[in-house]
Amino acid sequence: MLGRLNHVAIAVPDLAKAAALYRDTLGARVSAPQALPEHGVTVVFVELGNTKVEFLEPLGEGSPIAAFLARNPDGGMHHICYEVDDIVAARDRLKAGGARVLGDGEPKTGAHGKPVLFLHPKDFTGTLVELEQV
Amino acid sequence: MLGRLNHVAIAVPDLAKAAALYRDTLGARVSAPQALPEHGVTVVFVELGNTKVEFLEPLGEGSPIAAFLARNPDGGMHHICYEVDDIVAARDRLKAGGARVLGDGEPKTGAHGKPVLFLHPKDFTGTLVELEQV
User: Fold this and answer.
1) What EC number(s) does this enzyme carry (chains A, B) (predicted)?
2) Is the pLDDT of residue B113 over 90?
3) pLDDT-flagged residues of chain A (< 70)
4) Which residue range forms the structural domain that includes residue B54?
């Protein structure tokens, strides 16, 4: 069921600083910032050859990462995203196993324009897990 | 300089439970547990096609992940490991940029038998970063 690791998301207080660190100091390929007001974040992607790191900075009021950054003012790893072929089948299998799906349990359109779901960290080794249908 | 994402490490209080979750519920390929007494952890790898998740459980007294699990009793993402071609050149470039290398700054032999270094989370977006020479 579980496919590739699509990305690791790191929430940061200063996206420009994180992008400069990865581009200039670590020598990585870093995308231009992309504002996603409907998700309450601005994102930058670091291309690592086999997968991506996604930096997230809060955008606007009530950003979903504001509370995380209040607890982790330097930033930190926020979630991990796995690819699945069929997100509804994956959800139903996980729910049958007792796992909790966040929100209303229906897939939403994620930052990459594809259906995504988030799973409860308490059911996944203390880690917020995103599933993305590819 | 920065190569592939080698693995994302997740510290867990119960390795068998994490392995069963990923193998049975998520349908992933999970390795047998491997005790690494010299690193104070037992590890299990989840093969994701393009990269790996490494689960870490404390082993013995004074495990380097004991404090992390005391703060995160359900577990959580512990570090991210990037591949580099030349770890000494990478270290010197990072130090010249003001980044702090943990320990005595010399590469150690990591869990995969290759030279590794850890970088200070305060200098890397609140995230513990491991570099592994491949």
Assistant:
1) 5.1.99.1
2) no
3) none
4) 5-133
Tens digit of each residue's pLDDT (9 = 90 or more) over B72-100: 999 999 999 999 999 999 999 999 989 99
Q: In the structure encoding, which two tokens stand for residue B115, read together?
A: 């030279």
Using the beta-carbon criterion (under 8 Å), do B26 and A2 form an inter-chain contact?
yes
Which residues of B are the active-site residues? Answer: 130
Residue B44's CATH number: 3.10.180.10
B12-28: average pLDDT:
95
Q: How far is A131 from chain B (nearest CA, A)?
A: 11
